Amino acid sequence: MSLPSIDAYVSEHKEQALDTLFKILRQESISTQNKGMRECASLMQDLMRKVGMEPEVYETKGHPILYGELKSNNPEAKTILLYGHYDVQPPDPLDHWQSPPFEPTIRDGRIFARGAGDNKGQIVAQLLGVKAYLDCFGTLPVHLKFVIEGEEEMGSVHLPEFVEEHKAMLESDLVYTADGSSHSSGQPLVLLGVRGMLSLEIEIEGAAFDNHSGNTGNIVPNPAWELVELLHTMRDSDGHVLVNGFYDHIRPATSEETKLLKDLPFNASEVGEKIGYPSLSLDGQSYHHKLTMEPTFNIFGMKSGYLDQGVKTITPSKASVKIDTRLVVDQDPADVFAKIEAHVKAHHPTATVRFLGSMNPSRTPVDTHIVQQAIAGIKEAFNQQPLIQPSLGGSLPDYVWTNILKAPSMLMPYANFDQRNHSPNENITLDHFFNGIRCTAHVIHELGK
Fold this sequence. Notes:
Helix content is 34%, strand content 20%. It is globular and about 80 Å long. The N and C termini lie close together (11 Å). It has 14 helices and 19 strands. A 6-stranded mixed sheet has the order 1-2-6-3-7-18, covered by helices on one side. The protein is an alpha+beta fold. β4 (105-107) and β5 form a beta hairpin.
């Protein structure tokens, strides 16, 4: 078998690949708003059929999960599970888009559309990579399973239950996910885990309604000030979280993981430019350690009083803050939530703490044999050794594979570093999309040896 034939095939079928992707990108599929979800699931089923499988639809209490299989002629072949999602984030604010978010447009070598990078462009590249392999060689050297869900952008709320109930059906030697962003250097990147996440809301109430800030100034309590004072008890000026036990159970990086982080290339000015923060001054080792091996304590929204234009002199009746924490192995979101709740109650007994969602962290050891085989396939696809990062800074439901299915898992981002996922003008470069197709075929080939 000659893998250059795959490269030639991808080159010859670029227009068909783009037509396939554009059809799916045109269909909005906003899971949090239940917009276009069934329609997009149907389009994804059609693509799975074109690849050669007969997809099954598994209903959940939310949006459906699609499952399909392709068998190798070799019964002893390894089984690889490919995961992705067909739902996307809302496109707001619409006036920041240079072209309509659900009308894919090519500009400057990039495909602009909501879902171009996260995750439609990447899961379509996986499926087309499998089709390319079958069209070139007729048979697969490995068994393939596909799980494509519609709730990743809302926390994959029903995926753990699906995996728990279908362990035997999903049993695999490796889970291979194409998601996330490539390294800022442009080099291919392998990720062997993710940070977990806990999101919560804290609300403080004062008077029963907003008051005139002069007539009752110094009389009714101001919950906005109380919330600010509470937050000061939770984190110091250096960013250290002051909640008792917050840093318990964190698994230290191994010497191999520390070396991998140290070897990752880093250019502070280049990264700063790409993330819109040109004053970034961290060194590479600190940057990557903070991004992968340390938890966060982030405020992503605050609300109190009058926030529109002009002046409205009131003492607000309520104040609230929404917080997300990115957690690392082996932190437990439920344990961290309980500790935050206890801290809040100790400092402000009448405050309300609401759990909003969570996802467990996950990590696969770098020396796992089948992971090393897949890395060899990625090296062949790009003709260079990929960078290896022990964890993604963000969160994906990777733990359902490592903790529930008990399978090693790896992520190979097919999208560019500056894909602007979750933001206006989301994009994937044409090169990244086509290389994703090639890479999938190369990984299949290597894992079949």
